[in-house]
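User: I'm curious whether this sequence folds into something compact or stays loose and floppy. Could you predict its structure so I can see for myself?
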Amino acid sequence: QVQLAESGGGSVQAGGSLRLSCAASGSAMTVSCMGWFRHIPGKQREGVAAIYTSFGRTFYADSVKGRFTISRDSAKNTLSLQMNSLKPEDTAKYYCGAGYCGGDYLNGNRYNYWGQGTQVTVSS
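Assistant: Here's the prediction. I'll summarize afterward.
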């Protein structure tokens, strides 16, 4: 089992920045992928960014490329998402996920463990 806990959400004006963190515990070192997903009520969950834990390769949704950066500190068992140049359309609840993705890193259906989520609100 892996337990995940997000922090760092909040409200910011368009163009601003936020940094999300995800603390992992339990059998976190056994997963092959960790990622950030977001959900807007009434819409499908969207994979935002992910990292292949073995080699550190990163993956991003086209909508956030160049603005968001995912990173992982394996010593501290934390996953972070630095979000810059935020836009109102980035407003969502953001979730940290972990699992055994089989190469499909931005597909939430391939993730086994989830945090409770943290709200990000970007105002225009």
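Summary: The radius of gyration is 13 Å. The CA atoms of residues 52 and 103 lie 8 Å apart.
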